[in-house]
Amino acid sequence: MLKMPVLEIFSDYILPWCYYITGRVEQLKSEFEIGIQWIAFPLHPETPPQGRTLEVLFAGRNINIPQMLDHMKQVARELGLPFGDREKTYNSRLAQELAKWAEQKKKGDAFHDAVFKAYFVDGLNIADVNILADIAESVGLDGGESQDIMAGRIFKEAVDTDWARAYECGVTAVPTFSMNGRTLVGAQQYNALANFMRQNNIN
Question: I want to staple 88 with a disulfide (CB 3.0 to 4.6 A). Which of 3, 51, 65, 114 is the partner?
Answer without folding.
Answer: 51
